[in-house]
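Researcher: Let's continue the batch. This sequence belongs to Export associated protein, and it's 582 residues. Same format as the previous ones, please.
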Amino acid sequence: MSTELVRGQNLALPDTRVEVEVAAQCPVELVVALVGADDRVRGDDDVVQRGGGDTAGVTIRQAGATFELDKLPAEVERVLVGASLEGGGVDRFGVVAAPVVTVRAAGEDLASFRVTDLGNERALHTVELYRRQGAWKVRAVGQGYEAGLEALLKDVGVQNRARVVDRARTALGGPAAAPFSAANAPTEPREPGTVPRVDANGGMAWAAPPPDVEQEANRRAARREVEKLYEQVWGVFEDAARSAAAYRSAIEYADGRLDKELEGVLNDPAARFSPAGLAAQDTARDRHRALAEQAKAVLDRDTAQLVGEVEQLEPNLPPVMARWDSTSWAGWQAPEDGAPAIRLGDLYLPERPELRVPMVLRLPMDRGLWVDTGATGLEGERGDGAERANELAVSLTARMFAAFPVGEFKVHVIDPAGKGTAAAPLQPLAASRLLVGPVATDAADVSALLGRIIDRIELVRMAVANDAVDSLPDGLDLARQLLLVHDFPFGFDDRSAAQLRHIVEEGPRVGVHVIVVGSRADAESFGPLLEPLWRSLLRLTAIPEDHIMDPWIGLPWVYTPDLPSGGAEATRQLLSWVAGGR
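Model: Same format as before. Here are the structure tokens for Export associated protein:
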């Protein structure tokens, strides 16, 4: 019996031979991307299209594909099945009936998925086949791309999208693409000891080899293992979000069906209390109960599996991605390369508090953090206030110190109140001797520090934009910078607030990041000036609060901070290790 999937729902595959077909009222071409644990293809050959050459385990025809999953390379964790428009007078999916994806396994129809709510999309990520603990599953995705196939390919890390698209079109009779051959080889003389390097456009040049090939290979392998753990955490997060969304969708469907069935009986006074009417009501409620129990059983099964995966992951996470009480901190060493991510805390859904998913943030951060001192928590009670918020901000700063090589991460502190660095919990930072210069406390110091940071941002930004990085002054510190602002907006005027907003918006592009500790309510006197600042920051709370939305379904998750159980002592110890270059 075929299962009708909704967005986010997954289903186990009973066989490793799987067929996927996409039926639409317009011509479509399938594209398949084989991605690894980092959600990226290894190269152009991992993108498969009709006529684009043979790939082990994948056979493409116009609107269908056959997969022999046991023949795929071990590095392939997910198989993305995309569909793009190919002529026929249709320029977007929204003007035709919703495409239907059919999945077959073991010779029978296993599932179908109707991709609804489409508009200007010209390409679709329809479904994906993915490994989970050695077994394969199918997930309904239904993500659209208005920019077409190239945007889809960009999402999976294809460097030269035009070449991949043209490769298949050439084989199908389109214009010839320039082949990669000796003609691409560099024309300049080869220097002794150099090796060929291929750039993103397929050109070649001579370049010096790595200083120690074996050492470099070991470092890359170690980083790949950490990246894999990071992706596994996000895989659990995504699966939990989609499982919860499927559950809520099933309950909504069951409720709607019950209302509709009861409406037909209750609206007829003559049938409302008749034996037949009462029997119909009982039948409708029994059917609703069965659907709800079935949906809950699936959710319980998924949750139990994901809880087990988190329990297996936690002991293996590197220190900056682990909980503060993890034994992995005992083996911390100053890294030679920056860590891929740090832990901000944990996330859970209100209906499944037993599943705590690590909340890990990719480094370097592409947005700043706002630790809210005015959070009220789940029950509307005001939390522990500024002290716990500052403790969270300092612990996150310590994690960032530990995530970067010694000397490649610098921290500035603004404390206009003039009291936070003298006492707990900001005291560990002040005592660590890791800060760049003294803490900015008065208006003149704050203005001068903000001005210096803005000057650095603009100087580096212009150099990067004009491909003139080599012309930057020799004395310019290119290390990652963090500005920690305590008790915002105390001590700020309109000018300094506008400067901070500029740093928040432009800094991440050139390695300058911000953590703001403060209450939005206290900044009401600035009017709309700071609205863009608050919106551009990732809000964290020192007490549990359900304000974090997942990026797939948009469900609200409860954020819980991860703070050292021993107070500031663990943070102080870590900062001393960093200062000692351990």
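Researcher: Any comment?
Model: The first helix runs from residue 149 to 155.
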